[in-house]
Amino acid sequence: MTQDELWERNYQDTLNFITEHKKRPSKHRLEEHKMLNWYKYQKKCFAKGKLKPNRIDRFTHLVDVFNQYLRKNQYAYTSQEDAGNGFHDDLFKRTT
After folding, report:
1. What is the mean pLDDT of residues 42-53?
2. Sign of the CA dihedral running 68, 73, 74, 80
3. pLDDT at 66
4. Residues 6+ apart with CB under 8 A from 69
5. Quick one: 10 exposed, middle or buried, by C-beta within 10 A (0-12, 13-18, 19+)?
6. Whose CA is closest to 11, among 55, 51, 44?
7. Cβ contacts of residue 89 below 8 Å, gap of 6+?
8. What does the alpha-carbon distance between residue 42 and residue 7 come to, in Å, rounded to a whole number?
9. Rounded (5°) CA angle 77-81-83
10. Sign of CA dihedral 68, 70, 73, 79
11. Alpha helices in 1-96 (DSSP H)
């Protein structure tokens, strides 16, 4: 198996997993860990400009699909009015 075939297989496995399960691969599940590590390595190569030109379009599509399933924080630390500065004034006020 050539490098290009292996890359294509990892790409398809990761894309199929995300579209089938409607979530990103988890670092906590061993069967998903390989896909997540492959994705992170490809992202690092892309950022450094080392990703092969014929893979760039396909990888950017995978990034778009990956970003559709961002994990949402279950705790709301800020309200919509305070979204600009990132801090909520009530968090730092003393209640005594």
Report:
1. 95
2. negative
3. 92
4. 18, 22, 23, 24
5. middle
6. 55
7. 82
8. 10
9. 55
10. negative
11. 3-21, 30-48, 53-67
Say which residue the tokens 């990132």 belong to.
Answer: 86
Interior CA angle at 55 toward 50 and 57, to 5°? Answer: 110
Q: How many residues does the chain have?
A: 96
Cα–Cα distance for residue pair 28/24, rounded to 1 Å = 11
- The residue written with tokens 């992202």 in the block is 43
Instruction: Tell me the per-residue pLDDT of 2-19, one tens digit each, with 9 for 90 and over.
Output: 999 999 999 999 999 999
Q: Note whether 15 and 65 are within 8 A (CB).
A: yes
In angstroms, rounded to a whole number, what is the distance separating the alpha carbons of residues 14 and 35? Answer: 6
| 67 CB-contact burial (10 Å; exposed 0-12 / middle 13-18 / buried 19+) | exposed
* Longest Cα separation, the chain: 68
